[in-house]
Amino acid sequence: MHYNIYFIGALLALIGGAFSFYFNGVYYGKILPHQFWIPRICQMDSNQCTSIVETKYGKIFGVPNAQLGRYFLFGYSLTLAGVPFNLVDPLIPLFIGGLTIFLGIYLVYGLIRLKTPCSICLTIHVLNAVIFIIQAIG
Questions:
Q1: Where is it located (predicted)?
Q2: What band does 46 get if pLDDT is binned at 50, 70 and 90?
C-alpha cells in the first residue's frame, strides 16, 4: 500500500481542522468571517452558518461540532501520519473515517433540513469523505 495516501490524508485532516478552528473562531467572535487564508467560497456569513450551532445538528454531546472537530481532525491527522511509521494499524484510521462518513451524512442531512447552505461545513464533510475514499481504494 502506498504510504503517501496517509500523508495526503493527514494534510487534508489538518486543513479540515483549520477550517473547524476558523468556524469556531467566527462563532465565538474571536475571528472575523473574512480571512485571507480561507478560500472565498468557504468564508462564512457570520449569521447563517453560525445559526446551525444552536440546533440539534450543531452540537454533539452539547459541544459545538466545530469545537470538537478541530481537536478530532488534529488527532485524526496524527493517526493517519502514524500509519507509515507502523505506529498505527491502517484499519484504525479507516474505521475512524467510516465513522466520519456516517456522522457527516447526518450533519449534511441537518443542513438540508434546516435549508442552511454552509459552504465551510460542506467543505469539511467533503474533505472527510475524500480522506476515507483514498484510504479505502489506496
A1: Membrane
A2: low
Give the whole-angstrom CA distance, residue 11 versus residue 57.
Answer: 26
Helix, coil or strand: residue 9: helix
Contact (CB, 8 A) for 132 and 98 = yes
Quick one: which H or E segment has residue 21? helix 4-27
- Kindly give the residue spans of alpha helices, DSSP state H, lying in 28-118: 65-82, 91-113
CA distances from 54 to 50, 58, 62, 74, 114 (A): 8, 6, 10, 24, 11
Torsion (CA) 39, 108, 131, 119 in degrees, nearest 10: 0
Q: Which residue has the cell 459541544?
A: 63
Q: What is the residue range of 10's domain?
A: 4-137
pLDDT at 1 over 70: no
- What is the pTM (predicted TM-score) of this model? 0.93
CATH number at residue 40: 1.20.1440.130
